[in-house]
Amino acid sequence: MILVTGGCGYIGSHTVVCLLEAGYEVIIIDNLVNSTEVVLTKIKKITGKEVVFYKEDVCNKQALRAIFTKHKIDAVLHFAGLKAVGESCAKPLLYYANNLNATMILLEVMQEMNCYQLIFSSSATVYGEPQQLPLSETHVIAPTNPYGSSKAMQEQILLDMGASNALWKIALLRYFNPIGAHQSGLIGEAPSGIPNNLMPYVTQVAVGKLAKLSIFGNDYQTLDGTGVRDYIHVMDLAQGHLAALDKLPKQSQATRAYNLGTGYGYSVLQVINFFTQETSIEIPYQVVDRRDGDVASCYCDAQRAKNELNWQAKYKMLDMIKDSWRWQSLNPDGYSCSKQNVHTRFKSINID
Ligand code: NAD
Ligand code: UD1
After folding, report:
1. In this structure, which residue's CA is closest to atom 3 in ligand 1?
2. What amino acid positions are annotated as catalytic residues?
3. 345 within domain boundaries
């Protein structure tokens, strides 16, 4: 069985769908701090399969122990964490406490229970300002905000754990910019409040929830002056986890980092133009000052994941836009409209 922490969230839920479709049995633990149980009914609808769900905090050691005692867990996919850069600057302790404790407590319980296979959700943000592009896994780690620092610290802890005991097999997956949604339009990214990230902002402008996009600077050293990023379809990312899971037992190093991106960068203006091409909807925008902490360009060297995991992204930008838009237009308010159906449809077990 695979334990998925944060499995009700954006990337976790898409990965759970892929795991179920590949025949894995899945247990989700999520405290729903940034998600909703409604996603569980949607996963069931897509896959026709049940997951076992625990509404619990990963920092709750007793609860984790009880879950590991009750189920034979072979590997853990650890998505649970807080992820908003701006909030992490305002509340650094919250980010360090939640993200670091969750990982340390998880590791402690895994070790106790002799479960040594772990896939960790890291981020391209650990690289900070790129010293050279494309970013390879050997690039210096130099995060520029508390969220990124919490990821870099968790990576260090996982490296140290790997060095402490050769039984550990740990993959650090450094995601670039996940966008898109499952092709069913049933699950997708549902940010609370005004989105921080480009694609959900664009789709919310297109659906009429927001008036116009602010482009954060058009004076970068890029093809058109706007920021360039490596956008990756969330379903490609999900498949990357399955590839890493498959490889884990054969991984020669105890802890190994992989970039998960396409290797291609697109500017903000290119993304807007692709969006209009795909949907025929114009996105009104204004150019404003640069956002603090933003870099001009960020895209990856995706070769290591291709060589060692036999994985590469297959979706193109127009696919990503099509799927982001399908999700947003079918669910203008995210998951909030279908909450009443939740409790009858999935299996939830109390632990005491
Ligand atoms: P998300 O917020 O949608 O999902 C995270 C889930 O973890 C949520 O369901 C939340 O309720 C849960 N959670 C948080 N703290 C928890 C705790 N202590 N105990 C139990 N559950 C907890 O975020 P996402 O976009 O799906 O990201 C998943 C992971 O990938 C995160 O670790 C994030 O930092 C990382 N990541 C995300 C991106 C991105 O752009 N979305 C990029 C790079 C890395
Ligand atoms: C953000 C996070 C980063 C995280 C990544 C993936 C910040 C500072 N960084 O990075 O830690 O790993 O998401 O989730 O939040 N843009 C606009 N207008 C908007 C929104 C974005 O012009 O309203 C621009 C940005 O300046 C950037 C590009 O769009 O050039 C992409 O932005 P975004 O989606 O927020 O991702 P990142 O900046 O890469």
Report:
1. 9
2. 147
3. no
